[in-house]
Amino acid sequence: MAAMTTLFEAPFVVFMGDVTDPVYGKTGLGLVQWRASDCLGQIRLPGCGVDTGVPELDIPMAQSLGARTLIVGSAAVGGRMPDHWVESLCHAARLGLDIVAGLHIPLSILPGLTAAATAGRARLIDVRVPPAGIPVGSGAKRSGRRVLMVGTDCASGKKYTALALARDLNAAGVAADFRATGQTGIMIAGAGMPIDAVVADFLTGAAEVLSPDNSPDHWDVIEGQGGVFHPGYLPVTIGLLVGSQPDAFVVCHDPLRRHVSGWPDYPLPSVTAVIERTVLLGSLTNPAIRCVGVALNTSRVPASERLALKARYAEETGLPCVDPILDGTGLIVDQLRREFGA
Amino acid sequence: MAAMTTLFEAPFVVFMGDVTDPVYGKTGLGLVQWRASDCLGQIRLPGCGVDTGVPELDIPMAQSLGARTLIVGSAAVGGRMPDHWVESLCHAARLGLDIVAGLHIPLSILPGLTAAATAGRARLIDVRVPPAGIPVGSGAKRSGRRVLMVGTDCASGKKYTALALARDLNAAGVAADFRATGQTGIMIAGAGMPIDAVVADFLTGAAEVLSPDNSPDHWDVIEGQGGVFHPGYLPVTIGLLVGSQPDAFVVCHDPLRRHVSGWPDYPLPSVTAVIERTVLLGSLTNPAIRCVGVALNTSRVPASERLALKARYAEETGLPCVDPILDGTGLIVDQLRREFGA
């Protein structure tokens, strides 16, 4: 495979601050779930109500256990990082741990952190900053195969579906890599492209850089962003779609949602509408694009209703429908094999 | 109207450097054509082969005539501004003229220019830098009317069509403003949104900021960018389309072009295909969106063939077809009145 440079070194510890709502700890929870073997433990400040389930450490313990990196796994409520979090990061940096975060601001402007990093020879790594030199999209055909997650909305399971699908392809003996497009995905993969932070002119080019030429049977499993009918974010979604030139896509859907999350005047599009629109738009750079499955988030659906619900979507689309967390994505792996050969 | 803040003060002089190819002097030529009454003259360095036709000045003359601003109207070949151009800008800034440019780099990093501007109390104004605080697009309905230029490609006459249409609407007694989305348009209007320089997440929001609420009969005539089938730039086009929520659009087309300029593997889409796709995508935020005309660039078509060519597009689309430069846009103004009332 054409490996992307890894942004940071393992093993790492995940810093959870003192958040109390799991929503604000999503990144840390995802990291621990998908990179358990590289995670030495968690650092939680007094009052923290989110537990990722890994060993409890403090910063000196993390250092003595050989941690190379501290990853900020919580989002600060209100967007501004509290002073006592910054103190912890400074402490870790002075001890030589690289600091990784996906803030809206660069780590370097947090008070004292640059000096601490210099003193400890630590790196400050912002995963939300796109790399330099992204070209304009060329639209040229690339070798290798690509499957993109698209959603009926934001936060509909695209990252988890992509991670599960890459894992299940690998388990089935198919060469595949997860390609991250958002901050949590980038932290999990250690590489990727923060697609929503790219300047508009270079969106398609950024998607091209994310999934470069590869061997013919290799699959890039690309995390999606936004939604093709999303009134705010659709340009990001469409740029990623056209630049990725996917052979295949999976529609990720929360069956209980009724409107676009945060946009109550915009009803949630149907899975069928998203399939049709994705084929229409994706055909520009890959006329053979097709849907290979539906990934439902059924976590809030009563267990007794899940099977019927998946059957309904499978019938509507003529495609496999799974809950990637509960079922895995084996049926989608099978569909990819049927459609594209082993 | 809800006026946007003017970025720079008139009167101005246009700085042409020493370019020899009119392609590199497009901005200056456009400025002189569309803002003649605010332009005191041109400053050309020895060897300059592009003449905008306005009086020849040097920097001290410009100052003594009352120029408030010097606008860089030429693009540097190869992208790097030559030292002797920078010297001229420093000279003007020391004399107190504000400097306006749409470079890919900020004016402030040109050697000596910040010091010269400080000494002369001059401002350095980069029109390619988006304003701070652009929100994510809300998709909420705004008051007032909007007509967007869309193209079958980049550089197909969108800016000139929009400028001509705003002028012709005003001449017909209809309240209308040109809304600029690119650097030359922004220099002509003195305001606007450099839409292709906006970070992807905020594209639709940037388009919303560009054409805010207005009185019910007022038209914003919005310069378009890129093309809905453009393999590189379509996310910019689609973000602008969805954020603008236009009531109407005009398709701008170069009838002699066969493929997307610079993308030889991508055939130019037909006007009809662009109409259909624009309606499909634009319906998300304005279900009543419709095409009101076709603007052809017939400058390279033999004069004897122009009438038949326009008739052919008019018949194909059932809409008025004009060359906005040669014919004006009166037929499109009429169509807007028929469709939307006086």
Characterization of this structure:
The structure is a homodimer of 342-residue chains. Chain A has helices spanning 26-34, 59-64, 83-94, 113-120, 158-171, 183-189, 203-210, 234-244, 271-282, 303-317, 324-327, 330-340, and strands at 12-17, 39-44, 69-72, 98-101, 124-126, 145-151, 176-179, 219-222, 248-253, 259-260, 263-267, 290-296, 321-322. In chain A, the strands form three sheets. Chain A has a six-stranded parallel beta sheet with strand order 7-8-6-9-12-13, with helices on both faces. In chain A, strands 2-1-3-4-5 form a five-stranded parallel beta sheet, sandwiched between helices. In chain A, strands 10-11 form a two-stranded antiparallel sheet. The first copy, chain A, folds into two domains: 12-126, NAD(P)-binding Rossmann-like Domain (Rossmann fold, 3-Layer(aba) Sandwich); 145-340, P-loop containing nucleotide triphosphate hydrolases (Rossmann fold), CATH 3.40.50. In chain A, helix 10 (303-317) links the parallel strand 12 and strand 13 (321-322). The mean pLDDT of chain A is 95. In chain A, helix 1 (26-34) packs parallel to helix 6 (183-189), helix 3 (83-94) runs parallel beside helix 4 and helix 7 crosses helix 8. Helix content of chain A is 34%, strand content 18%. Chain A has 342 residues and is of the alpha/beta class. Chain A is globular, with a radius of gyration of 20 Å. The A-B interface holds A 136-140, 195-201, 203-205, 229, 231-236, 238-239, 242, 263, 265-266, 280, 284-285 and B 136-140, 195-201, 203-205, 229, 231-236, 238-239, 242, 263, 265-266, 280, 284-285.
